[in-house]
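Data availability excerpt. The first of two example chains:
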Amino acid sequence: MPDFSRSSPLQRWLVPAFFGAVLLLGLLLLRDYGLSIDENQQRDIGMISLKHVGQMVAPDWIAADHDFDKYSTPLAEFYDRDYGVAFETPVCLAERLLGIEDGGDKFRFRHLCTFLVCFGGLIAVFQLARRRFDDWRLGLLAALWLVLSPRLFAESFYNDKDAVFMALFAVATNTGVRLLLRPTWRRAAWHALACAVAIDVRIMGILVPLMTLGLLGWRGLRGEIPWRQLLAVTGLYLALMWGLIVALWPYLWAAPLDNFVEAFEHMKTFRWGGVVLYFGNMVAATDLPWHYPLVWPGITTPVLYLAAGLLGVGLMGRQLVRYRWRLWANERGLQDVMFLGLFIGPLLAVIVFHSVLYDGWRQLYFIYPAFLLVGMRGWVAASGWRPRWAGWPRAWYVGTGLCLLVTAAQMVRDHPLQNVYFNLLAGPNVGERFEMDYWGLGYRQDLEYIASHDDRPKIKFFAPQPSPADFNRLLLPPEQRDRLMFVDQPDSADYFLTSYRWHPDSYDYPFEVFQIRADGRRVHSVFQLRAGW
């Protein structure tokens, strides 16, 4: 690659141009995505915590805003009270302060906030790669890989649980690396804040401070940091982080330690007892085989990143064997250890403890930035390989560019259902072997089709997934959403809508009037049950 210094004019305009283009693209595409099955529940979680806090500090405001009226359950009695709300509650607060009343606008605003947080995570990945490889171009390449990860791109608009946590986990990792390299009071304070926010979104964020403390301690044992400085910085970090964790999580206020332990215990076994379509069989989420968390990332991540990641794991593993108990020889090696630990550690823990997973591998999205950084190590090593063929480096760069272009083209073709992306390793008949649109996003297009092709004043529809199907009416214009009515029995419906979740086989209804396909695969269907056009 040509040698550009950090102060080159190219860097000064290309880096802002890249992030400006991603931001603009996100804002333009924001309104294209449907509503997912969890979004209403997530808003409820945020609103109940907001009401709990508001009744203590601004009871008159809570009483005057009738949007809080339906949330009568106290926080202490709420079923999902132990869910972190560091994202949900601020978004609900902003929504209420802005006076957003239309149901569709409320969730479009949430999509905007979700995207902006994920955009912050993208910047963190850029900074992590730029620092590790001391090259801004490789920082941009890592960020581009994240943008061109089809499922993660789509979910960065509506997945306010897993995608938001992934972004905040990346931010916490970034501040953690800064603290590891130069332990100062200021860096400790920023890392404490980043970790607290990540933990208060999902308690699995505790992995970052555990890794940070472990590596800081190891640096102290190796004599790389004076113990007096290390103890002072670590003490500040722990005290500030715990204080922020409690402050940003209203559920903890009544009994900080006890409630934190309760939330951690609940996290170890996700509260879901449904079934998952896996290799063509319906399997209970509690009985999934050990290889589930390996297969799903393997069939839904672009092959280029997988190959680079496997090479990176091998190289970093060799580094650990080479340096034994010392683990690293320089600051680059230290960063590699952190990235490898944050990728491999949670993955192995899920396999060993047989954690409950479902809806693909979304509960493990948070390890993806670390995986990409491990993959960057592999990509850089491959680009520096010097075989006898003198044209290898150029071929490697061209091949990388072609792979990225193919992925980008597929994302454009499948828009806005990049969430059903599968790579070539998934094999044939994917829709019959693995779950597709488990979020229920395609119901928006189903309803839009019906509303635009059936002019009756009242139209009844049924769907096996009632929550996302009915929920997506909110994104239609008010005059259209009022015409559509969900019914709980197909016998009384005019239309049958399906995403084929939990039932991949075709239905027997003869009149399929609309179909959504992505990458040549059927994702949604609308069947007409009664004539009326």
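And the second chain:
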Amino acid sequence: MSSLPASVEQRILLRTATSRDAFMASAVLARAQVTSHTCANLCELVRGLQEGAGAIMLAEEVLSDPAAAALTEALAAQPPWSDLPVLILARQGADSPVIAAAMDRLANVTVIERPMRVASLISTVRTVLRARNRQYQLRDLLDGLRESDQRKTEFLATLAHELRNPLAPMSTALTLLMRKPHEPADAQRYYELMGRQIDHMVRLVNDLMEVSRITRGKIELRMEAVSLEAVIKDAIELSRPLLEGSSHTLSVELCRQPLVVRGDGVRLTQVFSNLLNNAAKYTAPGGNIRVVLREEKRNAVVEVWDNGTGIEPDMLKSIFEMFVQVSGTSKAAQGGLGIGLTLVKSLVELHGGSVEARSEGLGCGAMFCVRLPLTRLEAGATQAPLPAVSGWPVSLSRTVLIVDDNRDAADALSDLLRSLGASTCVAYSGAAALRMIAEGPAPGLAILDIGMPGMDGCELAMKLRANPELSGLILVALTGWGQRGDKERIAKAGFDHHLLKPLDLAALISILQGHS
């Protein structure tokens, strides 16, 4: 966007035949509250164009000036969004060849014959200035699109970097495990390493999906009375590994009386965990982080302070926008896509609240303040934890059919379920699954991928549901598709359950125990 003063961008540059004409024209425009600037010659007018103008007004007499060629060049060199209006004050009488030539050379020309009515002049000037304002709007739009495109480019580069980071240790660990046999105790640390890196990649992908769902209005909140003290304690537990890993000192100041808001406890925990993670990442090891919970004018106020890298004043608002990362601080952050604050702002606003950032500048730390409307205390139900995975439910004694066109994914899941005591069979396409079922025996559970080529998982599910011999079959969709429309399509196809990849084994065991 332009940094020029509005008066410069709206002014009329004048080059008249006489100084008296210039004085009169300036006076008329001033009475109409139009800013003008009189140029002594065309060279000065061309320089004025480079500084900014809403339009130019020329007398016919000055078009024969040799310097008119410089004006033509300056107008031809305008940026794509600009088409500066040119008003020519023509002498009364027959059409002038000078005017005709000017209309050929200059694109956006309006000819006004002298003498003219003042109302006609002012009306024409206001019309061209309105057209010029449209051009400025187009300029700002193009600048915004260009900046957004640059942010997306930087974001994709960051995404590629962040996804490569966990792949490197996973690849190294796999190479070590394949080079020579390892005792189980020695191999365990490599398995744990790969597990941590997989968890990190899952968090990255989940963050991307969360932003996508929120920005498209596809997220559903489970609203209930929530104690903010409990939410903050849960958020601290989630962020504790990062805080302790950087040896930060965390202090917490809670309100004496309970503060209750109406919201989704899981999402609010995500909000404050993201703010704590952000503080931890942008604070040097051994830093101080402080959380304050207080009441202010029927609002609950949560402040997260740090003494980290700080934020430049001009970034305090845009820091919450998608694809924005604070320049000069990215090296201080310890990984991540820089979309955590976008999630924070979106989730807080969905709860009817607001969030703002404050900082005195780079090197001065930062404070993020969340305000949420208070509600009266009500008893809220708590979600029961998922059971620990100890073995395959004994009630599901029949074969488990796994269908996925990704052979590695299907085989790995089969091996995992077998390790728990399940009997499995694997098909790599919908057609192969139907042939396998026809040959028998009938499975008791089928775990189907959705996005398969040819016959997808939903089509396969409908064919299975149409088979009366499979009336007791439990159908589970295991897929990367998790939007509301996907869930509706999967349910309509006849699935009993819908799980997202990668498989949460405890969730699978939990829902299957419900069929016992």
